[in-house]
Design brief:
single chain; alpha+beta; conserved putative lor/sdh protein from methanococcus maripaludis s2 fold; Elongation Factor Tu (Ef-tu), domain 3; 4 domains; six-stranded antiparallel β-barrel; 4 helices; 20 strands; disordered N terminus
């Protein structure tokens, strides 16, 4: 058996074939395994490789952040009339008010006016018994007539004496005596004429007339009573024009001057406004106070306002027509300039402005230049909002 084994191994050709076959099989196996490895790797890459996004899914530049503003945080610029008013209160007093009294003494025969009645200037209010006054007038007129006759006779005598003195028939002293008599009579006649005028005036004064047109506020006499000269009989007030005496703090007094426009109204009916004007301004403070009196005149042709009525008023201290003003917080003041934040399109823009006076006790600032009608301005600087930011205005 061992011989057969040796014989097979000793054959040269057969030995080489037996040796080469296992090597071939190994090489083939290596090639197959390598191909399988490459195939697995290719399949793995295909399965696990991330998908490449298409053009529609590619991320572009990041969109800007848009901040939301409430409409209450902006104001639209609109030119308007600026005004500054001073509120006052006071009581109504008639511009014209008189106390009527008689200038002669006598018994009242008739009283024609009652309290609350309207009277016209010159209208009869009261008549006084005038019998004594008529007699006095007649006596004075008679005395005046006597003096007139005496003067006429003395004048004629003077003419004759002057002619005779020129002829040397009458002495110079006689002429001078007659001249003195004529001069005395002339003086007495003038005095008599004055007494006649006084008597006639007293007779006219027996009729008491209204010195002004107005309303009888009070009456202190009745028919049959004795009228004392100089004693008040009637009070008449003219309410066609009234004055409101208003108290104003001394600190506000410098802003007031005659001619300034004002408005008045009664607290119970504020919808009815009475135009008025500053008539006078007191130059000093009222005793015991830190205020002064300002007098406001108002027309009251309809008589709606009555004396001592309490009223509220507004005095137009200053005004500027067709001007632009912003809330004070909307304007940022620098050392030499001022600026505001505008809404231009969808962005915030800082714009320089030129400011003027302050209004409404400093709550509004007038803008002289830098803004136009329709501009949208932030009412105040907002935290986290700066020029260049994108914004949108909508109600929260």
């Amino acid at each position: 058996m061992s011989h057969d084994f040796l014989d097979e191994a000793s054959t040269p050709g057969d030995g080489r074939r037996l040796f080469r076959r296992p090597a071939l099989r190994v090489a083939v196996s290596i090639v197959v395994v390598g191909c399988l490895a490459l195939l697995i790797m290719a399949l793995g890459f295909t399965v696990y490789a991330p998908a490449r996004p298409d053009a529609s899914q590619r991320i572009g530049p990041r969109a800007p952040m848009v901040k939301i503003l409430d409409p209450e945080e902006v104001v639209v610029v609109e030119p308007g009339d600026l005004s500054e008013d001073l509120t006052v209160t006071g009581d109504v007093k008639p511009v014209s008010q008189v106390s009527v009294s008689a200038e002669v003494t006598g018994v009242a025969t008739a009283v024609m006016a009652l309290p609350g009645e309207k009277v016209s200037s010159g209208q009869t209010l009261l008549t006084i018994a005038d019998t004594d006054l008529r007699l006095a007038l007649q006596a004075e007129e008679a005395a005046m007539a006597s003096l007139t006759a005496q003067l006429r006779a003395a004048t004629a005598s003077l003419t004759r004496t002057s002619g005779l003195a020129g002829l040397g028939i009458k002495s110079k002293s006689a002429l001078e005596e007659i001249e003195g008599s004529v001069a005395t009579l002339k003086a007495n006649l003038d005095a008599s004429a004055a007494r006649v005028d006084l008597a006639r005036t007293n007779l006219e004064r027996a009729t008491v007339r209204a010195p002004i047109s107005g309303i009888v506020a009070s009456r202190g006499i009745e028919a049959g009573q004795l009228v004392q000269a100089g004693k008040p009989l009637f009070d008449i007030v003219d309410l066609a024009k009234v004055t409101v005496e208003a108290r104003v703090p001394l600190g506000k007094l410098a802003a007031l001057q005659p001619g300034q426009a004002a408005e008045l109204w009664v607290p119970q009916t504020p919808e009815r406004v009475f135009p008025a004007r500053v008539a006078r301004v007191s130059p000093r403070a009222e005793p015991g106070s830190r205020s002064a009196i300002v007098y406001l005149d108002a027309d009251n042709a309809e008589g709606a306002l009555r004396g001592s009525m309490f009223m509220i008023g507004r005095i137009r201290v200053r005004s500027n027509l067709d001007a632009i003003a912003l809330p004070k917080d909307a304007v940022t003041f620098g050392s030499r300039s001022a600026s505001v934040q505008l809404v231009r399109g969808d962005r915030i823009v800082e714009a320089p402005v030129v400011t003027g006076d302050k209004w409404n006790a400093g709550q509004a600032v007038e803008v002289i230049d830098g803004l136009a009608s329709g501009d949208v301005v932030l009412t105040r600087p907002l935290s986290g909002l700066k020029p260049g930011d994108f914004i949108r205005i909508e109600r929260n």
